[in-house]
Amino acid sequence: PCFSAITEAGCVHDKIVCSGGRVSVEEPEFYWVNTVLGNLKGALRSSYHAIRPKYAQRYLAEFQYRFHRRFNLSALIPRLVYVSLRTPP
């Protein structure tokens, strides 16, 4: 039921059942999921003293912005300035 939008988009959702813990870390299907979640947790812990649920969407948006531009580091700051100036308060 919760994956109906995925089905409507023509994609298939295959569930993988594992026992959790160390076994799930060794599953090749979860390698990049674990990597991205680890990067997200590390970015949040190192950037913010306290994390508030009210601002969770903003934290995730910032992580997403940096994640998608991680290979073009020289353009990161100029692009951030550009977007900051064009974004309404």
Summed up, the domain count is 1
User: How many H/I helices?
Assistant: 5
The secondary-structure class comes to: mainly alpha
H and E order: HHHHH
Mean pLDDT over the full residue set: 83
Strand content: under 5%
The stretches of 5 or more residues where confidence is low (pLDDT under 50) are: none
Organism: Microbulbifer okhotskensis
Domain ISXO2-like transposase: 2-67
Protein name: Transposase
Could you walk me through the main structural features you see in this protein, from its secondary elements to its overall organization?
With 89 residues, this protein is mainly alpha-helical. It has one domain (20-86). The protein has 5 helices and no strands. It has helices at residues 4-8, 22-25, 31-47, 56-68, 76-86. The longest helix is centred in the middle third of the chain and has 17 residues, at 31-47. The chain starts with a helix and ends with a helix. Residues 2-67 form the ISXO2-like transposase domain. This is Transposase. It comes from Microbulbifer okhotskensis.
